[in-house]
């Protein structure tokens, strides 16, 4: 009784797209709701015959065989890493057309088994090489010290790559990966989810349209308190990730032509706890604050000569933002969809790029390279 290739996740996605519940599906199949519930929880396998009936009811390919019969276009993704962000990724893939998770890998066999059982992935690979061999694209959500190695292996094998932040440890490594992707005609994307969210896109549009006048200052704060027991490596990864979010926002809002950068650092004997990075431009300034041992309101404020934009915490997951003026009667609160963890937007962008559909480049190669240089030079972790 096969239960392969994210079958449960694809059924959930099809139900959601058609506005159906498990009870509706049970009624359409002539089954008891309890039986369908056991299928969807993974407690009972779904026979090939029942999968075919589900496909007929939902008018959607569910099994791997049906996907292949439908024709080319489905992108098989291999996931490297099984932590919290990889779990959110698996949840969100179900909401993106023309792709599914085919396999997963982690050096921790128990974690790999747990991850695959939870998300209905039957191809649990024993090595990165095995995973890369049988997929079209790779999502890298492993510890950041492995990002460069895994991305290079995937690109050399002709696979597209979506990689979590921090991208690599050095500018040279980032440059090498982009050059390799370009030589092989592959898609390489930094997984900065904020850039792809509808609300953040609208924030940038309002800034470009001059709604708040000329931008003079931007402040973005990203703090995550970690307990004393975490390793220095994990702490450094998180503080770098927090800083990268603000640094990318500053490049998006104020551009790349800055004059100088300074960084105030608070640290203990083993790890950095807080960074306050000041980026000076000709006529503006950005403050990027990132912490793992200091807590503050994780909001973003963009100040202009006519008004300012306020994005409440957590600003990197913006469901809405406010445009505020001197005359409060003119203030606006603008809401935009931000579904679940927001990863579906970056996944959809990644798949669209692979299919060579014309699309804006939300995070450019030039921005990613400049970011890598800034992190290497100023964070010093």
Overall description:
The protein is of the alpha/beta class and about 375 residues long. The chain has three domains: about 5-70, lambda repressor-like DNA-binding domains (434 Repressor (Amino-terminal Domain), Orthogonal Bundle), CATH 1.10.260; about 75-195, Rossmann fold (3-Layer(aba) Sandwich), CATH 3.40.50.720; about 200-335, Dihydrodipicolinate Reductase, domain 2 (2-Layer Sandwich). It is built from 14 helices and 14 strands. The strands form two sheets. Strands 8-9-10-7-11-12-13-14 form an eight-stranded mixed sheet, with helices on one face. Strands 3-2-1-4-5-6 form a six-stranded parallel sheet, sandwiched between helices. Helix 9 (about 145-155) packs parallel to helix 10. The radius of gyration is 22 Å and the shape is globular. The termini are far apart. Residues about 1-5 have low confidence and may be disordered.
From the structure above, extract its key features:
eight-stranded mixed sheet; alpha/beta; 14 helices; 434 Repressor (Amino-terminal Domain); Rossmann fold; globular; Dihydrodipicolinate Reductase, domain 2; 381 residues; 14 strands; six-stranded parallel sheet; single chain; 3 domains
